[in-house]
């Protein structure tokens, strides 16, 4: 069995070592090989892929829950959805969650993921009290906020060791529903104004129609909201629709994307409207379709996600959106988000500003287009998100991450660069 | 409080069943040999669900111990699920009588010994549910695993008789016939993806079927039709096939 990541590209043969006990893991790491941890493969690219993989997902026990402080101690393979299944009905929710709940706690730490509330709550590492990690020599260490090991591991893409378990703090909720406001805008200027106007609300995200042209560039549906307060916590996870096979690649082209965006945009009422929606559809709209990645066909796809500093966001985004709409390469998903302050971690993605994420089917000419977009990102002082990346150049990457040398030194000093590698880390010399 | 007794609790299917039942508000007795290995799992269940979980040391082939173990449960269970099973490779089993006997005892005799006791109790109480995890392998003898299959066939027949006997007292009996399931037992086999269920799917199916009072459950559902066809191939042809 070989494991592939969510983008289904690249596909290489790999040996999978299931994490069952720490003793077995220690023995595995003893071998004269390089390894990389793999959670649930929801990263899009090659950050969890190598010839030897430590499959952490089977290591998924819950260890303790402190009901007074809301601190959960859990093994790194547990999925965020497992946590929600267990605790929403008891009035607890994740402090930070990405757009899918099908990721492991270890994956959340290694990518230092962010959610729709980054401008208020920051990254996942904010809610991590401490974690235990197995280092290159098989030794187990505990890392707390402020430790160098913590700074390097949160966002460190599995390159410092195998995260074993973590204590994370949950937040109180009093409903499984979200009070949502949807704002429909006509162009990028309106979109930015709307983000600013609503930034006091904890959750916000915008769907951009990235095929819009000229004055309409940047038109979007901005969705903002917070948990309701109606005491309804009778949560039952829903079963899922499955896409059982890969769509033929012609199913996804410019026209189908246009049609999708048109439908999505046009079903929303003009101006500002209010809805009450379930948290599952607010946070995880795509999770209800199992294996939706197969829509892109067997060649796979990638997500291009970059962030620009606030001062240069408007200009940069306008340029990039213009380029994409001219290229005619479509994306079902074009998600725009406002971010808060940068944290101290060496390789965490967010900086204060705006980020855009777009899905692209892998096809001829795509990487050339993305290289061109990279140039604009660099020009405006931005950076690329490693967990979604499968093709960025070392040069572009390094320009965005000034703390990379600290990360490299730390890895060198602790023999991590001898033991932990992914295809990505080799490509980027991480 | 309402306890469900899960017998053979270390198996992958049993673990998923434990999660489903505790999540739905049941306390659990987890019975297995050498329950020490289940300590971490017990904690996992308790942390996830806030329900009680107790470990019960039980060997399904130690028939003499069943009555006293059952009597010593601090509270009688509301339901019992027998998941214990044993399957070694046919070529080993057919040459080694102790392997044959163990196959029969784990899959059939032991289950009968335990369920006789519990059935009598439930009948008297006029409540409770019994779930037996048998196998599609019991639907027809195949050269590939007929010793295992025949023990499962006997178990299925036992459950069907028990169901008829207990019907009047309001005790339900569910026979579960899984096809291929992706478990530790089948990890190294190359199973067809479309016919292979995940343990968590099996557990969800069992819970639903048990709660709605179903008699027989094929999981995945497609196995019902697969076995319908296999059962109807005439023996003179079947013996020439390598199914
Ligand atoms: C639909 C969708 C929406 C998404 N939305 C967001 C979003 O809003 N925000 C966001 O930040 N991300 C988002 N993501 C990306 C996703 O959250 C991250 O890629 C996450 O890290 C995936 O976790 P995983 O468990 O699947 O890990 P994998 O994909 O298996 O691994 C990701 C990285 O984590 C490392 N890793 C995994 N487990 C461990 C461990 N135990 N110890 C050490 N290293 C480990 C791997 O080596 C790899 O580098 C989204 C992904 C999808 C598919």
UniProtKB/TrEMBL annotation, chain B:
<dbReference type="GO" id="GO:0016491">
    <property type="term" value="F:oxidoreductase activity"/>
</dbReference>
<dbReference type="Pfam" id="PF00106">
    <property type="entry name" value="adh_short"/>
</dbReference>
<keyword id="KW-0560">Oxidoreductase</keyword>
<dbReference type="InterPro" id="IPR036291">
    <property type="entry name" value="NAD(P)-bd_dom_sf"/>
</dbReference>
<dbReference type="GO" id="GO:0016020">
    <property type="term" value="C:membrane"/>
</dbReference>
<protein>
    <submittedName>
        <fullName>SDR family oxidoreductase</fullName>
    </submittedName>
</protein>
<comment type="similarity">
    <text>Belongs to the short-chain dehydrogenases/reductases (SDR) family.</text>
</comment>
<dbReference type="InterPro" id="IPR002347">
    <property type="entry name" value="SDR_fam"/>
</dbReference>
């Amino acid at each position: 069995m070989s494991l592939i990541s969510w983008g289904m590209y690249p596909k290489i043969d790999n040996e999978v070592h299931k994490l069952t006990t720490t003793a077995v893991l220690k023995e595995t790491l003893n071998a004269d090989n390089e390894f990389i941890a793999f959670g649930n493969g929801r990263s899009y690219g090659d950050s969890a892929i190598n010839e030897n993989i430590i499959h952490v997902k089977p290591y998924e026990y819950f260890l303790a829950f402190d009901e007074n402080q809301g601190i959960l101690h859990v093994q790194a393979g547990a999925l965020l959805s497992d946590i929600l299944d267990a605790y929403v009905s008891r009035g607890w929710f994740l402090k930070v969650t990405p757009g899918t709940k099908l990721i492991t706690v270890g994956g959340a730490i290694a990518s230092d993921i962010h959610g729709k509330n980054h401008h208020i709550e920051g990254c996942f590492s904010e809610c991590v009290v401490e974690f235990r990690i197995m280092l290159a020599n098989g030794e187990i260490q505990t890392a707390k906020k402020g430790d160098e090991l913590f700074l390097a591991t949160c966002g460190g893409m599995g390159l410092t060791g195998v995260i074993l378990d973590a204590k994370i703090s949950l937040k109180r909720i009093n409903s499984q529903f979200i009070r949502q406001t949807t704002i429909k805008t006509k162009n990028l200027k309106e979109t930015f104004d709307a983000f600013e106007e609503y930034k006091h609300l904890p959750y916000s995200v915008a769907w951009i129609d990235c095929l819009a042209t000229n004055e309409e560039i940047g038109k979007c549906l901005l969705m903002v909201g917070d948990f309701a307060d109606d005491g309804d916590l009778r949560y039952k996870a829903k079963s899922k629709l499955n896409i059982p096979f890969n769509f033929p690649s012609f199913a996804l082209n410019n026209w189908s994307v246009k049609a999708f965006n048109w439908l999505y945009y046009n079903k929303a009422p003009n101006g500002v409207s209010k809805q009450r929606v379930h948290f599952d559809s607010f946070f995880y709209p795509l999770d209800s379709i199992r294996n939706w990645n197969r829509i892109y066909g067997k060649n796979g796809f990638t997500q291009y996600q970059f962030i620009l500093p606030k001062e240069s966001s408007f200009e940069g985004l306008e340029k990039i959106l213009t380029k994409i709409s001219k290229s005619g390469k479509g994306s079902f998903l074009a998600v725009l988000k406002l971010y808060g302050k940068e944290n101290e971690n060496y390789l965490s993605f967010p900086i204060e500003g705006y980020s855009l994420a777009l899905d692209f089917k892998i096809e001829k000419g795509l990487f050339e287009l993305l290289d061109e977009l990279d140039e604009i990102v660099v020009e405006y002082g931005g950076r690329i998100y490693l967990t979604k990346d499968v093709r960025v150049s070392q040069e572009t990457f390094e320009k965005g991450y000034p703390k990379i040398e600290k990360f490299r030194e730390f890895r060198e000093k602790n023999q991590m660069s001898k033991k932990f590698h992914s295809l990505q880390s080799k490509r980027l010399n991480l | 409080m309402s306890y469900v007794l899960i017998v053979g609790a270390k198996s992958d299917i049993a673990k998923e069943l434990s999660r489903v039942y505790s999540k739905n508000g049941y306390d659990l007795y987890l019975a297995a040999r050498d329950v020490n290995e289940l300590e971490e799992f017990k904690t996992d269940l308790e942390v996830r669900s806030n329900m009680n979980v107790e470990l019960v040391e039980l060997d399904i082939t130690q028939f003499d111990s069943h009555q006293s173990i059952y009597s010593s449960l601090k509270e009688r269970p509301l339901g019992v699920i027998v998941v214990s099973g044993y399957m070694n490779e046919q070529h080993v089993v057919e040459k080694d009588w102790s392997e044959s006997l163990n196959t029969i005892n784990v899959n059939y005799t032991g289950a009968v010994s335990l369920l006789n006791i519990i059935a009598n109790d439930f009948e008297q109480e006029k409540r409770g549910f019994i779930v037996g995890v048998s196998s599609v392998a019991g639907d027809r003898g195949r050269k590939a695993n007929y010793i295992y299959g025949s023990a499962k066939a006997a178990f299925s027949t036992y459950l069907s008789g028990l169901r008829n006997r207990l019907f009047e007292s309001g005790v339900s009996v569910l026979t579960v016939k899984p096809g291929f399931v992706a478990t530790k037992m089948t990890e190294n086999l190359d199973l067809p993806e479309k016919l292979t269920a995940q343990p968590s799917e099996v557990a969800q199916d069992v819970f639903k079927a048990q709660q709605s009072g179903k008699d027989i459950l094929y999981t995945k559902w497609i196995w019902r039709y697969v076995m319908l066809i296999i059962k109807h191939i005439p023996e003179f042809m079947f013996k020439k096939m390598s199914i």
